Amino acid sequence: MSIAIDRVTRIMNTLVKSLSHMGISAFGAQELVVRGRVSGKEFSTPVNPVTVDGCTYLVAPRGQTQWVRNARHHGEVAMRLGRTRTPYDITEVCGVDAVPVMRHYLRKWAWEVGRFFPEGVTARSTDAELEAIIPAHPVFRITRQAA
After folding, report:
1. Which 8-state DSSP code applies to residue 119?
2. 15: left (phi over 0), alpha (psi -120 to 50) or beta
3. Residues 109, 118 contacting (CB under 8 angstroms)
4. What confidence tens digit (pLDDT) does each residue in 42-77 have?
5. What's the CATH number for 3-144?
6. What pLDDT is recorded for position 7?
7. For labeling, which of 27, 62, 78, 105 is most exposed (least CB within 10 Å)?
8. What's the pLDDT tens digit per position in 90-99?
């Protein structure tokens, strides 16, 4: 990844997080909050949730990142928009079950995150091509925790 892309990514993440703190969802983006595996400290990052067949999902376009490892470890995350913080249980979706989610995600968000996926992989890729990239770009179903 080039320095220019890193700079653009940092700027975009800062912008989306700032908007989220003000209660504004840029194109549906929200702020994901996860606890660190060792420190227990909260970390946040912008994410682009998608809804497929009535369920909400998160895709990790940048791969096996810290938020992915932390979410797997704790089995829960929170989504924040403005002052509203909503806790969710998180379940990884693998293989063929994740293909429709990945296809929808790429259809909706490729303009922003397409550069993080292997060249040639798009929403129009075959099911087998999408299934092949899912281990490197995990998919999670999030379910709102009971109050």
Report:
1. T
2. alpha
3. no
4. 999 889 999 999 999 999 999 999 999 999 999 999
5. 2.30.110.10
6. 72
7. 27
8. 999 999 999 9
**Residue 107 and residue 112: Cα distance in Å, rounded?**
11
Both structure tokens of 57: 């999902």
For residue 145, give the 3-state DSSP assignment.
coil
If phi > 0 it is left, if psi is from -120 to 50 it is alpha, else beta; for residue 131 that is: alpha
Closest CA to 77 of 107, 106, 56: 56
Instruction: Specify whether the CB–CB gap between 58 and 49 falls below 8 A.
Output: yes
Give, rounded to a whole angstrom, the gap between the first and last alpha carbons of the chain.
Answer: 42
DSSP 8-state symbol, 146: P
C-alpha 50/C-alpha 25 separation (Å) is: 13
Long-range contacts of 54-57 (CB under 8 A, 24+ apart): 55/141, 55/143, 56/141, 56/142, 56/143, 57/93, 57/101, 57/105, 57/139, 57/140, 57/141, 57/142
Per-domain residue ranges for the chain?
3-144
Does 19 have pLDDT greater than 70? no
